[in-house]
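Practice record 12: protein with 3-methyl-2-oxobutanoic acid.
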Amino acid sequence: MSEQVIIFDTTLRDGEQALSASLTVKEKLKIAFALERLGVDIMEVGFPISSPGDFESVQTIAREVKNSRVCALSRALPKDIDAAAEALKVADAFRIHTFISTSTIHVESKLKRTFDDVLEMAVNAVKYARNFTDDVEFSCEDAGRTPIDNLCRMVEQAIKAGASTINIPDTVGYTYPSEFGGIIKTLFDRVPNIDQAVISVHCHDDLGMSVANSITAVENGARQIECTMNGIGERAGNCSLEEVAMILHTRQAKMGYKTNINPIEIARTSQLVSQICNMPIQSNKAIVGANAFSHSSGIHQDGVLKAQNTYEIITPESVGILTNKLNLTSRSGRHVIQHRMQELGYRDTDYDLEELYTSFLALADKKGQVFDYDLEALMFFNQIENQP
Ligand code: KIV
Ligand code: ZN
């Protein structure tokens, strides 16, 4: 039996805060519906105290979305928590996410307080949020750089105050997988009441390790991953939803974890987020990049034509992409040219494969990628040349 990992999506909060233009309520609602259809368990959709527009979008989404729990962010301050609760109260059930920094650099340089002050603020904030809902999440901002004794104290006190989810963010994407996994393991070893809360992780991608850190955290006991579609978010972004979901799905038999994400919705949701947020997806991006299912080398193309799983560990169809792509380049072999001609509706007797392949290679050497219309033009040109 696989264990469930909760997918907490923060595309509309951490993702949106990194965009150059903020989204309208309608745009946010469109993304929220797509995330609901994708199967996210929880969606964090804004920071209501920050602006009237953010308040309105949280309220609208909380009213409309029924199959994912809606959550809003607040600092560890009563006025923030009041705003979050006010925006969310239209929903049948909701989550309030409150946070405060716990690392020494943040506590001293940003908050200009002592760790004990911050501990007291955290406890008060969690208790206050519990007046509105029993689903309270508490985050130790910059947990990745927090002295472990302080982190253990904070987690224990936040759970005691009533937080049912404790989030451990690697806010600045600084840790590496064995180190971050070690932090989660230490919490399980040392915090006496840890079993009374779900341990969550929220990793940023400054060193490109957010996905690896999140997966290692799960292997060490975390059961909620915070992530965004296409990995959008502050600076280098957040842990990418499609990547963690497909890792847990593809390797479920070996790893033993599952999520409620419906993989077939991934491509469509990714495109929607990219377009609405005006954030293009890099072509070699795992799972959703334009090249994620395209093959260029002749050896790979030949292998995929014989059996798709020779070079594809997941099928494009399983994540909602119609088909894989075989790029026609000077590395492509005769087999691929013949296959493409068949796809274009030509019989083997309509053209001379050897002749077509020779002219294809000459063109590919000059041009790089050869397209279907080039291939057809070459065929017609050869036919004309061969006329008596
Ligand atoms: O990166 C971070 O620490 C955050 C918190 C507010 C959870 O986004
Ligand atoms: Zn973050």
